[in-house]
TrEMBL record:
The keyword Membrane applies. The keyword Transmembrane applies. This is Uncharacterized protein. The chain crosses the membrane at residues 7-27, 39-64, 76-97, 103-123, 135-155. It comes from the Bacteria. It comes from Solibacter usitatus (strain Ellin6076). Keywords: Membrane, Transmembrane, Transmembrane helix.
Length: 340
């Protein structure tokens, strides 16, 4: 049989047995929660052992071919059906990832035993006459052909079934999201009807979000609230960012009080965001949130408010951060607004 043949046979047998030992860890096991970790590790180990099993079987077939132990057509059969059975074993293991599938286990168990046993029979002089008979080789390779073809219809069905289930789940999710948006809109319409004139703008926040489903209706209602002007001015004075983002949408009057409140807002925001020398330098990003202030600045400048001092303060604050594409865009936008 030769030393190389013995070594390859022992390696094949060891990895094959290792794969068998791993089967009970996942075969037919429908695990949930933490138990899925053990099942996954068992499945992964079985796949590794199976891979090495077929690697060594490939070596055995190569030795048999180079020693002219296979019949004339046997070399072609080994070249085609050896990798074919290995691929079928991989496909069978894929099928076994479904706990309801058990029959594919026959392929990774029986196919290696068939081919390794056949090659070892050819290598042993005492067994070679029996294994060299044309009928024996024909039977072995026909059975190998069955193993190589067996799992693929189920693989196609399972893959197609998973794709169909994904499509169905996506459709159900889309329908649920539509229903959820309609339900949220209906609830928020009732809340909108209950809003009283003069209510705090902060109470309007949930209705002003895009996800509320009533954002446009809420903005329209808030524009008709006479108290909105004074509230926005107070909120700007306290440095509330939401007030600046709402500024373009509330049909406000650009009074000196509003312009002054906006100036104080910019100075306060720039000061609070300014990195000090002892702070660790970090790149500017959208998390600093100056970008969301730009529509409000544009509205103020378009309505005659002098924002140059506030823009300069924001520019100076942004420059304390490390350079980034976001910072470059912000500085360019601020420069354009100063020139406005």
């Amino acid at each position: 049989m030769g030393a190389s043949g013995v070594i390859l046979f022992l390696l094949t047998a060891g990895c094959w047995l290792g794969m068998l030992v791993m089967f009970p860890a996942f075969l037919g096991v429908d695990a949930h929660g933490d138990a899925t970790v053990g099942v996954g590790l068992g499945f992964l180990a079985a796949c590794v052992f199976a891979g090495f099993t077929w690697l060594w079987i490939g070596g055995l077939l190569l030795i048999a071919g180079t020693r002219d132990l296979l019949p004339g057509w046997g070399n072609l059969a080994a070249l085609v059906l050896g990798p074919g059975c290995a691929a079928a074993a991989a496909a069978a293991l894929y099928l076994l990832s479904d706990p309801h599938m058990r029959w594919p286990a026959v392929i990774p168990v029986a196919a290696p035993a068939l081919l390794a046993g056949y090659v070892c029979g050819l290598m042993r002089p005492s067994l070679r006459p029996a294994f060299s008979r044309p009928g024996t080789g024909t039977a072995v390779w026909l059975l190998a052909l069955v193993f190589a073809a067996a799992p693929w219809p189920a693989v196609v069905e399972q893959v197609g079934g998973k794709a169909l289930r994904r499509a169905e789940n996506a459709k159900e999710l889309a329908e649920w999201q539509i229903q959820e948006r309609e339900r949220t809109r209906a609830q928020n319409l009732e809340k909108l009807k209950a809003m009283q004139p003069g209510a705090s703008i902060m109470d309007w926040y949930p209705l002003l979000d895009a996800e509320s489903g009533v954002q446009s209706e809420a903005l329209k209602a808030l524009r008709n609230d006479p108290a909105r002007q004074a509230q926005i001015e107070d909120m700007l004075g306290y440095g509330v960012r939401r007030a600046m983002t709402l500024l373009p949408d509330l049909a406000l009057e650009p009074t000196p009080t509003l312009c002054g409140a906006a100036r104080n807002f910019f100075l306060k925001t720039a000061t609070s965001s300014h990195l000090r020398k002892r702070d660790d330098p970090v790149p500017y990003s959208s998390q600093v949130s100056f970008h969301e202030l730009l529509p409000g600045i544009r509205w103020l400048t378009a309505h005659g408010c002098d924002c140059n001092e506030g823009i300069a303060a924001l520019d100076e604050s942004a420059r304390t951060y490390l350079d980034s594409p976001e910072r470059q865009k912000l500085l360019a936008d601020l420069a354009a607004l100063r020139q406005h």
